């Protein structure tokens, strides 16, 4: 394999790199050597993942060489061991002051992408290199658990708490085998994606979930979906220590939205009703135990235990807190126009304080909620919807994420949330599942139309600052679509001294991009709300696609703005033989809404395209759906892409309006005025 020297570091690359690939790797190494953040854009198809892996792992090996050189130099008292290769050349991945004493202090690499399917592609690329680091891929219990009893639990939350119970009582033999199996060479040194991890877990009868957590301790590079990294709750759950790590966020064009969503919530009347009903069940169960123990004590019998080490008064106190929170939300006066009311982000602390939820009380409240949820998970005979309690737990962790400095008030967190957040209170819009809701609604104290409390974050900068606070060495954001970089960096709210906008490896004549304003019959192809379901539009679109399937060879992708638009288009085309005309040229495969059957459909599409007897195939999918990102439509699988329309957010949605106002405020304050509206 070719060896390329970049900034003093030798990189092993599987082939002679293109100029843009060398430029990309040089920028990665610059970030790592200078301990600074970078935003690197390189178009899809330029080998970005391979460049990232090779340059980062080459730098890491060089870093280890620097430790070796210093250790040998200290022992040799400055005498050169190999005169033709001075020790000063062994490793310049870091300055002398930056070189740690121990190999265990060499920075770990955290490689995060949006989905596990994307991470599987990255791990497959790693297998094509000469580098063989110790790796680990993190996943959820839902993906990794192999205990049949835990797996059959319908709710993900119930799986979590049942798993914890079995681990604490050591009644899961898969978990009990982890310590012994985690040192086996096949598991420690293999490069495994999430499917390999499950396969090997079954083979060795060891829990893949806890195995991955064990392998994480010794791993050189840890792969994970980036919500594990950016969501503070997930970060704590996976016990991630980020101090001194190199954080790589691949497919980073999704980071902005995920940062905002992981720091936001909507608390509906249904959530509160669900939580209170769950508490009522716990109170009833505990009351039965108390009554039984009064009888047992009278006859000197052994006292019974429910398994929940909480007094009735403490459980009732939590219910009282929920009632107070419900009352505080309902007491907020709304304008008569029904648009809801918006307040500064710090108002959330005032509202929660009315229910005695504060920085001082949060720890004991979270501990009590955890105990109650653990109790309910261990009593499967009690059929109980615990979603409300789980949501309340998450919400308290979200609101009180940043502790005020020791000996101070909550002033610092109030400042931060006022900068990044808004509180919006509005009448419940009734989007909850009515079937689930009926019993709860009738049995809870909330019988009128209640109000929804929304706590919305409008800047990814909040989560980015949190990452920096964890003490990371370097953050690298990379994707094929980050431009304009100026506005993207402004939104992130942390410095990015290193930037790159790479050209493509292909020439312009090799790719055609264009807009078809009209169909073959002269009808305007406009997929706006007013026209997308009109017969003229659907007919003209069907004729257009029917023509293009005959022009584009092999695999063709057709994207629609949403599932309803795709369904309506297909229904119209099938009624009027447009579908038949399309399928005469290429058979159609349609993206299913159900995640479970997606792989079956996409594999059938790949097989049809690859068949020597076929003219290819057309895959109909949805923007922002399962096929729009994370899949590699390489070579003949994707020779053409048709986008029939884009999914625009509803301009009257309160959250969209507030986001636009937030950006306007940033412009007025001078932050990013030139870059966004220059």
TrEMBL record:
<keyword id="KW-0411">Iron-sulfur</keyword>
<keyword id="KW-0004">4Fe-4S</keyword>
<dbReference type="GO" id="GO:0003677">
    <property type="term" value="F:DNA binding"/>
</dbReference>
<dbReference type="GO" id="GO:0003678">
    <property type="term" value="F:DNA helicase activity"/>
</dbReference>
<keyword id="KW-0238">DNA-binding</keyword>
<keyword id="KW-0347">Helicase</keyword>
<dbReference type="GO" id="GO:0006281">
    <property type="term" value="P:DNA repair"/>
</dbReference>
<keyword id="KW-0234">DNA repair</keyword>
<dbReference type="InterPro" id="IPR045028">
    <property type="entry name" value="DinG/Rad3-like"/>
</dbReference>
<dbReference type="GO" id="GO:0010569">
    <property type="term" value="P:regulation of double-strand break repair via homologous recombination"/>
</dbReference>
<keyword id="KW-0408">Iron</keyword>
<keyword id="KW-0413">Isomerase</keyword>
<dbReference type="InterPro" id="IPR027417">
    <property type="entry name" value="P-loop_NTPase"/>
</dbReference>
<keyword id="KW-0378">Hydrolase</keyword>
<keyword id="KW-0227">DNA damage</keyword>
<dbReference type="GO" id="GO:0090657">
    <property type="term" value="P:telomeric loop disassembly"/>
</dbReference>
<keyword id="KW-0539">Nucleus</keyword>
<keyword id="KW-0547">Nucleotide-binding</keyword>
<keyword id="KW-0067">ATP-binding</keyword>
<dbReference type="InterPro" id="IPR006555">
    <property type="entry name" value="ATP-dep_Helicase_C"/>
</dbReference>
<dbReference type="GO" id="GO:1904430">
    <property type="term" value="P:negative regulation of t-circle formation"/>
</dbReference>
<keyword id="KW-0479">Metal-binding</keyword>
<dbReference type="GO" id="GO:0070182">
    <property type="term" value="F:DNA polymerase binding"/>
</dbReference>
<dbReference type="InterPro" id="IPR006554">
    <property type="entry name" value="Helicase-like_DEXD_c2"/>
</dbReference>
<protein>
    <submittedName>
        <fullName>Regulator of telomere elongation helicase 1</fullName>
    </submittedName>
</protein>
<dbReference type="Pfam" id="PF23109">
    <property type="entry name" value="ARCH_RTEL1"/>
</dbReference>
<dbReference type="InterPro" id="IPR013020">
    <property type="entry name" value="Rad3/Chl1-like"/>
</dbReference>
<dbReference type="GO" id="GO:0046872">
    <property type="term" value="F:metal ion binding"/>
</dbReference>
<dbReference type="Pfam" id="PF06733">
    <property type="entry name" value="DEAD_2"/>
</dbReference>
<dbReference type="Pfam" id="PF13307">
    <property type="entry name" value="Helicase_C_2"/>
</dbReference>
<dbReference type="GO" id="GO:0045910">
    <property type="term" value="P:negative regulation of DNA recombination"/>
</dbReference>
<dbReference type="GO" id="GO:0051539">
    <property type="term" value="F:4 iron, 4 sulfur cluster binding"/>
</dbReference>
<dbReference type="InterPro" id="IPR010614">
    <property type="entry name" value="RAD3-like_helicase_DEAD"/>
</dbReference>
<dbReference type="GO" id="GO:0005524">
    <property type="term" value="F:ATP binding"/>
</dbReference>
<dbReference type="InterPro" id="IPR014013">
    <property type="entry name" value="Helic_SF1/SF2_ATP-bd_DinG/Rad3"/>
</dbReference>
<feature type="domain" description="Helicase ATP-binding">
    <location>
        <begin position="7"/>
        <end position="296"/>
    </location>
</feature>
<dbReference type="GO" id="GO:0005634">
    <property type="term" value="C:nucleus"/>
</dbReference>
<dbReference type="GO" id="GO:0016818">
    <property type="term" value="F:hydrolase activity, acting on acid anhydrides, in phosphorus-containing anhydrides"/>
</dbReference>
<dbReference type="InterPro" id="IPR057498">
    <property type="entry name" value="Rtel1_ARCH"/>
</dbReference>
């Amino acid at each position: 394999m070719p060896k390329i020297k970049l900034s003093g570091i030798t990189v092993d690359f599987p082939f002679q790199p293109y100029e843009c690939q060398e430029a990309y790797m040089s920028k990665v190494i610059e970030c790592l050597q200078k301990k600074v953040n970078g935003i690197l854009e390189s178009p899809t198809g330029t080998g970005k993942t391979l460049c990232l892996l090779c340059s980062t792992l080459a730098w890491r090996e060089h870093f280890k060489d620097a430790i070796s050189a210093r250790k040998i130099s200290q022992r040799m008292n400055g005498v050169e061991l190999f005169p033709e290769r001075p020790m000063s050349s062994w490793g310049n991945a870091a300055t002398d002051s930056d070189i740690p004493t121990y190999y265990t202090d060499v920075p770990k690499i955290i490689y995060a992408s949006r989905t596990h399917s994307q991470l599987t592609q990255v791990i497959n690329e790693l297998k094509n290199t000469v580098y063989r680091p110790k790796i680990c891929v993190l996943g959820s219990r839902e993906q990794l658990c192999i205990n049949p009893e835990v797996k059959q639990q319908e709710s993900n939350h119930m799986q979590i708490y049942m798993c914890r119970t079995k681990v604490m009582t050591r009644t899961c033999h898969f978990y009990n085998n982890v310590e012994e199996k985690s040192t086996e060479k096949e598991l420690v040194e293999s490069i495994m994606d999430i499917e390999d991890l499950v396969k090997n877990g079954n083979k060795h009868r060891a829990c893949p979930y806890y195995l991955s957590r064990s392998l994480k301790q010794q791993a050189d590079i840890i792969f994970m979906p980036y919500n594990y990294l950016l969501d503070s709750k997930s970060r704590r759950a996976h016990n991630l220590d980020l101090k001194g790590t190199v954080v790589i966020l691949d497919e980073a064009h999704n980071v902005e939205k995920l940062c905002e969503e992981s720091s936001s919530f909507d608390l509906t009347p249904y959530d509160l009703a669900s939580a209170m009903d769950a508490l009522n069940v716990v109170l009833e169960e505990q009351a039965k135990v108390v009554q039984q123990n009064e009888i047992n004590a009278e006859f000197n019998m052994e006292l019974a235990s429910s398994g929940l080490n909480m007094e009735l008064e403490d459980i009732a106190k939590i219910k009282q807190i929920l009632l107070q929170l419900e009352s505080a939300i309902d007491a907020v006066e709304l304008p008569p126009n029904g648009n809801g009311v918006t307040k500064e982000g710090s108002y959330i602390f005032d509202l929660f304080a009315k229910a005695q939820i504060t920085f001082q009380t949060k720890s004991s409240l979270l501990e009590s909620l955890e105990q109650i949820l653990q109790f309910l998970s261990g009593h499967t005979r009690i059929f109980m919807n615990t979603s409300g309690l789980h949501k309340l737990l998450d919400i308290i962790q979200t609101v009180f994420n940043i502790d005020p400095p020791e000996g101070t008030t909550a002033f610092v967190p109030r400042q931060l949330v006022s900068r990044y957040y808004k509180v919006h209170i509005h009448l419940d819009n009734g989007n909850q599942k009515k079937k689930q809701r009926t019993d709860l609604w009738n049995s809870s104290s909330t019988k009128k139309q209640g109000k929804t409390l929304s706590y919305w974050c409008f800047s990814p900068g909040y989560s980015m600052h949190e990452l920096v606070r964890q003490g990371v060495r370097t953050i690298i954001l990379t994707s094929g679509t980050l431009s304009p970089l100026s506005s993207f960096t402004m939104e992130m709210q942390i410095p990015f001294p290193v930037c790159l906008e790479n050209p493509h490896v292909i020439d312009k004549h090799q790719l055609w991009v264009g807009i078809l304003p009209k169909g073959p019959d002269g009808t305007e192809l406009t997929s706006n709300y007013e026209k997308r379901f009109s017969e003229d539009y659907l007919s003209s679109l069907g004729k257009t696609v029917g023509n293009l399937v005959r022009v584009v060879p092999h695999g063709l992708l057709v994207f629609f703005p949403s599932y309803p638009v795709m369904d309506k288009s297909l229904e119209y085309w099938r009624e009027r033989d447009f579908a038949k005309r399309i399928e005469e040229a290429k058979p159609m495969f349609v993206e299913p809404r159900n995640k479970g059957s997606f792989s079956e459909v996409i594999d059938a599409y790949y097989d049809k395209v690859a068949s020597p007897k076929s003219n290819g195939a057309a895959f109909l999918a949805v923007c922002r759906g399962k096929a729009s990102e994370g899949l590699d439509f390489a070579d003949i699988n994707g020779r053409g892409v048709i986008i029939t329309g884009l999914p625009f957010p509803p301009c009257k949605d309160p959250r969209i309006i507030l986001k636009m106002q937030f950006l306007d405020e940033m412009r007025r304050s001078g932050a990013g005025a030139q870059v966004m509206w220059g």
